[in-house]
Amino acid sequence: MSNQLKLKGNWNELKGKLKAKYGELTDDDLTYAEGQEDQLIGKLQQKTGVAKEELKEMIFAEEDK
Protein backbone atom coordinates (compact mmCIF):
# COMPACT_ATOMS: atom_id res chain seq x y z
CA MET A 1 0.00 0.00 0.00
CA SER A 2 1.34 3.42 -0.83
CA ASN A 3 2.28 5.88 1.89
CA GLN A 4 -0.34 8.27 0.52
CA LEU A 5 -3.17 5.77 1.05
CA LYS A 6 -1.89 4.77 4.47
CA LEU A 7 -1.65 8.39 5.57
CA LYS A 8 -5.12 9.21 4.33
CA GLY A 9 -6.66 6.25 6.15
CA ASN A 10 -5.35 7.01 9.64
CA TRP A 11 -4.75 10.73 9.52
CA ASN A 12 -7.11 11.84 12.33
CA GLU A 13 -5.62 9.35 14.79
CA LEU A 14 -2.07 10.19 13.79
CA LYS A 15 -2.77 13.93 13.97
CA GLY A 16 -3.83 13.54 17.61
CA LYS A 17 -0.65 11.63 18.44
CA LEU A 18 1.54 14.28 16.80
CA LYS A 19 -0.22 17.08 18.68
CA ALA A 20 0.25 15.20 21.96
CA LYS A 21 3.96 14.67 21.30
CA TYR A 22 4.61 18.14 19.88
CA GLY A 23 2.32 20.53 21.74
CA GLU A 24 3.38 23.47 19.57
CA LEU A 25 1.66 21.99 16.50
CA THR A 26 -1.62 23.59 15.49
CA ASP A 27 -4.48 22.28 13.37
CA ASP A 28 -3.17 24.48 10.54
CA ASP A 29 0.25 22.82 10.80
CA LEU A 30 -1.41 19.43 10.50
CA THR A 31 -3.71 20.19 7.59
CA TYR A 32 -3.32 17.26 5.22
CA ALA A 33 -4.12 17.55 1.54
CA GLU A 34 -4.05 14.35 -0.45
CA GLY A 35 -0.86 14.15 -2.49
CA GLN A 36 0.88 16.83 -0.42
CA GLU A 37 2.80 14.56 1.97
CA ASP A 38 6.18 16.18 1.26
CA GLN A 39 4.83 19.65 2.00
CA LEU A 40 3.27 18.43 5.24
CA ILE A 41 6.50 16.74 6.35
CA GLY A 42 8.47 19.90 5.49
CA LYS A 43 6.10 22.01 7.58
CA LEU A 44 6.37 19.56 10.50
CA GLN A 45 10.15 19.53 10.17
CA GLN A 46 10.32 23.33 10.39
CA LYS A 47 7.98 23.46 13.37
CA THR A 48 9.49 20.60 15.42
CA GLY A 49 13.14 20.57 14.32
CA VAL A 50 12.94 16.81 13.77
CA ALA A 51 14.79 15.36 10.76
CA LYS A 52 12.72 14.60 7.66
CA GLU A 53 13.56 10.90 7.68
CA GLU A 54 12.69 10.61 11.37
CA LEU A 55 9.32 12.24 10.75
CA LYS A 56 8.59 9.93 7.82
CA GLU A 57 9.53 6.93 9.95
CA MET A 58 7.27 8.11 12.76
CA ILE A 59 4.31 8.90 10.52
CA PHE A 60 4.40 5.85 8.29
CA ALA A 61 5.51 3.35 10.94
CA GLU A 62 2.61 4.36 13.22
CA GLU A 63 0.16 3.31 10.53
CA ASP A 64 1.58 -0.21 10.34
CA LYS A 65 0.75 -0.94 13.98
Would you mind describing this structure in some detail?
The chain has about 60 residues and is an all-alpha fold. The protein has one domain (about 5-65): Protein Yjbj, Chain: A (Orthogonal Bundle), CATH 1.10.1470. Helices cover about 70% and strands about 0% of the residues. The chain is built from 3 helices and no strands. The protein has helices at about 5-20, 35-50, 50-65. The longest helix has 19 residues, at about 5-20. It is globular and about 25 Å long. The mean pLDDT is about 80.
By secondary-structure content and strand pairing, the structural class works out as mainly alpha
The fraction of residues in strands falls at under 5%
The top level CATH class name: Mainly Alpha
CATH level-3 fold name: Protein Yjbj, Chain: A
Q: Termini separation (Å)?
A: 14 Å
Biggest sheet: strands, sense, closure?
Answer: none
Specify Rg, calculated over alpha carbons: 11 Å
* Number of strand segments: 0
The percent range for helix content is: 55-70%
Query: Which spans of ≥5 residues are poorly predicted at pLDDT below 50?
Result: none
- Overall CATH architecture: Orthogonal Bundle
**Number of discrete domains:** 1
- Average pLDDT, rounded to a whole number, is 79
